[in-house]
Amino acid sequence: MVAKRGKIVESCDCGDACACGTSYHCGATGGVYGLGFIGAVVYYISTATTFWMGVLGILKALVWPAFLIFEVLKFLGA
Questions:
Q1: Which of 21, 26, 32, 60 has the least CB density, counted as fewest CB within 10 Å?
Q2: Which CB contacts under 8 angstroms, 24+ apart, belong to 54-60?
């Protein structure tokens, strides 16, 4: 363990706490996910025809990265 700016974080051989499984100031990926989540919720709710399709849309918005990766892999033919 190493003290970093007053906080104790795990360290590893690589010296990068982010690459070693901790989440101490590891970039803006949470912000990207959050914006994607908001966009997905707006899209799925705006295209929903019933209440339950809107609820399903919110659940789908939680896992939008999985849909994105699936479509990218399908496009690439993997």
A1: 21
A2: none
Which residue, among 17, 38, 37, 36, has the nearest Cα to 26 in the 3D structure?
Answer: 17
Tokens of 58: 């919110």
- Token readout for 50 is 């019933």
Asked if residues 69 and 42 have their Cβ atoms less than 8 Å apart, the reply is: no
What would the two tokens of residue 74 be?
Answer: 């399908």
In sequence order, which residues have a C-beta less than 8 Å from that of residue 10 and are 6 or more positions away? 1, 2, 17, 20, 21, 22
Residue owning tokens 């104790």:
8
Kindly tell me the number of DSSP H helices and DSSP E strands found in the chain. Answer: 3, 2
Parts of the chain with a pLDDT under 50:
none
pTM of the predicted protein model: 0.57
Cα separation, 62 vs 59, whole angstroms: 5
